[in-house]
Structures are given as C-alpha cells and as structure tokens.
C-alpha cells in the first residue's frame, strides 16, 4: 500500500537549499571576477538569468515521473545526437569556431548553446534505460549476458563520445566518467570490467611515458602536434612555461597560494587570469577567501554528493538508482577535474565548476541533472512490503 505523502514532504528542500547556496557563491565569485575580466558584459546578471531558467527547467522535469522520463529517453538521446552532429555541418553564421573548437551554436541572437552539456544528461538516461531493459529481457545472469550488456552500454556511449572527442577532450572525459560510474553498479561481472580497464590503463600509461620521455615517437607515429604536447609540459612545469602555455595555470597557482589561510577579502583580487569567471572561478574563491573559503566550497560539494548518494540508496526503482549514480559520477568528476586543474593536480581541460562557473549551457545542464533528482524524490513511492532484491544483480 502506498504511503500518502504531502507535496511539501516529497519536495527535496535540502537539495533546494544546497542549490541556493551555490547560486550565492557563484554570483559573488563572478561579481568579483569581473573586476579583472577582459569583457564588458555583466556576467552576474546573466548568471542570475541562467539560474532562473534552470529553476524553470527543474519544475518542468519534476512534472514527469520516472516511467514518463523513461519513455522519452530515446527521443531526448536522438535530439542530443542531432544537435551535436549538426555542429559539423552548421554554417559559420550558425556555429563558428572559438579557440580552434566548434562546440557552440553561437551565431544566433542570445546566449550560445553547447549541446554536449545536455548530451551528458541524455546519456545518463540512455545508459540507465539500457540496463533496466536488458535485465527485463535476460533474467539469467551469465558472463555471456553480461558481455552483451557491456557491448550495449559501450555502443550507446560511443555515440556522444565519437561526436565530441575530437573537439572537446574535457567533455569526452566526463562521458567516460559517467559510463564508468554506471557500469560499476550495473551488475556486470568483474571478469569483463577488469580486463577492459586494465588494458585501457596500460595503454594510457604507455602514452604518458612516451609524452614525457619520448615525445618524438608520438610526433612521428600519432596525430599529435607540438601545441598539444606543450600544453602537457606546461601543466607539468608551469613555472618554466609561464610566458606561454603555462600562463593560466601559473597565475591560478599564484592567486590561490596568495590567498593563504583566510584570503585577501571580497573584491580584493590582484592576480589577473583570463576568463577567470568560467573554468578558473575556483581561483577567485581561493584568492579572496583563502584555504578556509575554498574548503567551505569543497565541503558543500561533499554534502551534495552525500545527499545524492542517500537518495540513490533509498529509491526502489532500478532506473532511478542508475540515474542517481550517473548524476553523482557526472558532478563528482566535474568537481574533481575542475578544482584539480586549478591547483596543478590534473591537466587543464576546460571543464567548468558545477553550479559556480559562469555559463548558460553548463549551468542549465547541471540544473537538468538536479531536476531528475527532484523528480525522483517527488514521485518516489514507498511500500510497506517490497522485495528490492529483484532490482539488483550482484556481480
């Protein structure tokens, strides 16, 4: 028997509060970042508008329950594919290159549209549906059936990956992170997962070895140019390359380090970083609020991820569980990669900091992901007696 709940009880007020705090942090950091920005635009006002649109998106997604979303999954995935593929054939008047990459529909009036930000969310839905449909068809767990599921998931992931990887390595890594996160809870046996990822790790390690110790080999046999290698060397040693490819990272380290424990204070930034309001917004927080302020932001992300994990463990629909895991993987990788690249732990890839970096497509994509979580919580049904074992398969 369904437990009757009031709408207020079903609305996730904790998640709403977390997003409200992120909005305040984002607008404050962007406002301060504008003091040394090279653009005359009022990015704070635009970010508030994007947040407002994001709230409308959340409300719209909450209208649909998981069964309705599941039925729309392939339609949304198809729309994402068409939009992403359309960038390759779009004329310059509709989509022109920015910094050597064609990632946005930026020729129309209004803000630019980056379809890959929405494609990440559509991929989460598609992978979740593939797993649920597979287990509905293959009730017996065998290595063969697991291999079939792995191939299905791989084929679905290859669609956005193939359309994105040549233009945007950062987004491609996010897609791989989403795939990996959902794969690990899909129930596929480790007899398949370990050899695949072991091979990938070995190949990746070999490439890193040649990048550092034998770059001439890569230049000779692979499609790698000196510019790409210089970006890697600038990451490994930004101080040597601070007049060139390492300038952004060098200034970011200088800004965060100069913030020390308590920071310089609001609006007291001194280090100039190009496009600081986007991918390097964390350096603003580190410089103005120091280690304490940066730690507060990181703790807020931990609270968000912990909250999402609790939801994933509490839902009684396998599709919703996989969606939650996909969203957790998506947000976690974004945070880890963005903060990591500003402090030299990871290479610079152009991945924005969720909910804080300026950007319409990225923020609305984040809000779409949160809309799925709000919908799951709002439409979740609890039963007095239920057998949850049928929802999960042990690997």
From TrEMBL:
A single BP term in Gene Ontology: cell division
Membrane topology: Multi-pass membrane protein
InterPro entries assigned: FtsW/RodA
Residue ranges crossing the lipid bilayer per the database entry: 12-31, 43-64, 147-166, 172-189, 196-213, 289-307, 319-336, 356-376
Main location: membrane
Domain of life of the organism encoding this protein: Bacteria
One CC-aspect GO term: plasma membrane
Taxonomic lineage of the native organism: Bacteria, Bacillati, Bacillota, Bacilli, Bacillales
Subcellular location: Membrane
MF terms in GO: lipid-linked peptidoglycan transporter activity
Keyword Transmembrane listed: yes
Name by which UniProt lists this protein: Rod shape-determining protein RodA
Pfam families: FTSW_RODA_SPOVE
Keywords for the protein's UniProt record, in alphabetical order: Cell shape, Membrane, Transmembrane, Transmembrane helix
Iron among keywords: no
């Amino acid at each position: 028997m369904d437990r009757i709940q009031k709408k207020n009880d079903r609305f996730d007020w904790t998640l709403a509060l977390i997003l409200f705090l992120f909005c305040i942090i984002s607008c404050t950091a962007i406002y301060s970042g504008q003091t040394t920005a090279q653009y005359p635009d009022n990015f704070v006002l635009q970010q508030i508008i994007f947040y407002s649109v994001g709230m409308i998106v959340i409300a719209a997604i909450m209208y649909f329950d998981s069964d309705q979303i599941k039925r729309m999954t392939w339609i949304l995935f198809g729309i994402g594919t068409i939009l992403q593929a359309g960038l390759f054939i779009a004329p310059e008047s509709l989509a022109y290159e920015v910094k050597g990459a064609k990632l946005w529909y930026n020729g129309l009036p209004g803000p630019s549209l980056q379809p890959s930000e929405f494609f990440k969310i559509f991929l989460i839905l598609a992978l979740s549906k593939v797993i649920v449909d597979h287990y509905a068809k293959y009730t017996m767990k065998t290595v063969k059936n697991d291999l079939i599921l792995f191939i299905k998931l791989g084929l679905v992931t290859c669609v956005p990956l193939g359309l994105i990887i040549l233009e945007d390595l950062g987004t491609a890594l996010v897609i791989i992170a989403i795939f990996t996160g959902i794969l690990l809870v899909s129930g596929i046996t480790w007899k398949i997962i370990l050899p695949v990822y072991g091979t990938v790790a070995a190949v990746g390690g070999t490439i890193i070895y040649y990048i550092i110790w034998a770059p001439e080999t890569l230049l000779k046999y692979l499609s790698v140019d000196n510019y790409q290698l210089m970006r890697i060397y600038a990451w490994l040693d930004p101080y040597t390359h601070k007049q060139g490819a390492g300038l952004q990272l060098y200034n970011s380290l200088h800004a965060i380090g100069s913030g020390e424990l308590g920071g310089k204070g609001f609006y007291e930034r001194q280090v100039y970083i190009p496009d600081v309001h986007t991918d390097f917004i964390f350096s603003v927080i580190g410089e103005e609020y120091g280690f304490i302020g940066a730690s507060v932001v990181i703790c807020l992300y931990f609270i968000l991820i912990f909250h999402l994990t609790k939801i994933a463990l509490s839902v009684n629909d396998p599709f919703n569980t996989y969606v939650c895991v996909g969203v957790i993987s998506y947000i976690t990788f974004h945070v880890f990669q963005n903060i990591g690249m500003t402090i030299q732990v990871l290479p610079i890839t152009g991945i924005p900091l969720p909910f804080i970096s300026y950007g319409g497509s990225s923020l609305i994509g984040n809000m779409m992901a949160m809309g799925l979580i709000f919908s799951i919580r709002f439409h979740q049904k609890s039963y007095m007696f239920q057998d949850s074992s049928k929802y999960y398969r042990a690997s």
